[in-house]
């Protein structure tokens, strides 16, 4: 489980009477591609005391997933000129360490970057990546003529049967990954065999990062992993007549991701009650939807506590039973406020596509297929210009609050 002692030693935090914590998105809030948004450095100067200790617990929650969290912490520390510990970073795949029932299964991982190493770090013991699968079955990847085998293919050693699929993020070669993932799904984990049209059950699929688009340095948002998932779902439905089912959807806006992030906030100041979370983001469909969904869960949980009703959060779209101590899943905060900034995906000068009445509809909903479109979930608590304005707002609100001592 997470190491409490190490976290308290590495995160420099000044305990105050405030009972709030902050969740920061990264792309579009703090960074645009590899460049720092100017307001970000000014914002963090306001969140540090003279000894460079954080005034409030801070966690960075990003749907990025192509790196290890200590590398993301190093990148943020360098760019923001603030010491950030790995335990302050939640990547889209971070909650996978909680899904221990999959850790002993042979999993196929899709994405880019060191996805095999990432999977091992998260606790998975038997990991196969797309390139290894392609090398073992060279006749499966036929789209790029230059990558087709030039010589006759001899029989290869036995390849392990794949028991689950993990989608970490958008791959580089979409055509290769789409083809091989479909091969694995339609052969029940044995892609060297013919498709089985009578499959009674689908292999488990765990997907991280549902962002349809994300904001880099280009003038308009770029395709994200959600776009690749949309392609995979479309191909699967076209070939089978069925919807692709996910065992878990992780990363924002899943509840499990926010529970995990709150857990890290509380570890930064375990002797102080955490009552309010401020979630700062630039994407209505992930950051705002997720924060509002979590706020709804917190309200329902507190209501359930008063009626002795057991209430357990699951990840969005998830039917997974988490094998972790129950106390680790408890959410202690009372509320989560969503703050939308205008430096990323959301642009007030380019309103979201909607119907004639100005309402977002299913036809133009940019959230994932398995998310339910509810107008109140994409309505931020506050809209501000940038992250500095968000920090000014939340500090002002906290200064006006008299804490329960």
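^ structure tokens above, recovered residues below v
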């Amino acid at each position: 489980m997470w190491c409490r002692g190490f976290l308290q030693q590495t995160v420099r935090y000044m305990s105050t009477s405030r009972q709030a914590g902050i969740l920061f998105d990264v792309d579009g809030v703090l960074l645009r591609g590899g460049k720092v948004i100017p307001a970000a450095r000014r914002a963090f100067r306001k969140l540090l005391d003279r000894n460079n200790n954080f005034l409030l617990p801070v966690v960075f929650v990003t749907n990025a997933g192509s790196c290890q969290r200590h590398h993301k912490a190093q990148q943020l520390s360098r760019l923001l000129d603030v010491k950030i510990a790995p335990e302050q970073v939640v990547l889209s795949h971070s909650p996978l360490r909680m899904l221990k029932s999959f850790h002993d299964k042979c999993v196929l991982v899709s994405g880019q970057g060191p996805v095999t190493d990432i999977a091992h770090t998260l606790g998975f013991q038997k990991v196969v990546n797309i390139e290894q699968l392609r090398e073992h079955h060279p006749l499966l990847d036929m789209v790029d003529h230059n990558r087709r085998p030039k010589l006759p293919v001899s029989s290869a050693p036995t390849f392990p049967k794949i028991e689950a699929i993990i989608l970490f993020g958008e791959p580089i070669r979409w055509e290769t990954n789409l083809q091989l993932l479909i091969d694995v799904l339609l052969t029940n984990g044995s892609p060297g065999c013919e498709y089985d049209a009578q499959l009674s059950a689908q292999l488990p699929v765990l997907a991280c990062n549902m962002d349809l688009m994300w904001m880099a340095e280009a003038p308009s948002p770029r395709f994200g992993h959600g776009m690749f998932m949309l392609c995979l779902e479309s191909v699967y439905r076209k070939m089978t007549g069925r919807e692709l089912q996910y065992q878990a959807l992780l990363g924002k806006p899943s509840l499990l991701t926010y529970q995990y992030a709150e857990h890290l906030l509380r570890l930064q100041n375990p002797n102080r009650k955490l009552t309010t979370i401020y979630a700062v983001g630039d994407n209505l469909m992930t950051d705002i939807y997720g924060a509002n969904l979590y706020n709804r869960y917190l309200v329902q949980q507190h209501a359930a506590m008063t009626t002795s009703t057991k209430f357990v959060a699951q990840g969005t779209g998830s039917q997974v039973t988490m094998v972790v101590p129950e106390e680790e899943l408890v959410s202690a905060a009372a509320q989560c406020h969503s703050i939308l900034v205008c430096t990323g995906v959301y642009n007030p000068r380019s309103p979201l596509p909607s119907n004639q009445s100005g309402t977002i509809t299913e036809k133009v909903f940019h959230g994932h297929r398995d998310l339910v479109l509810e107008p109140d979930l994409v309505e931020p608590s506050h809209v501000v210009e940038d992250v500095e304005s968000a920090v000014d707002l939340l500090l002002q609100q906290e200064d006006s609050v008299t804490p329960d001592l």
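The two ends are 30 Å apart (CA to CA).
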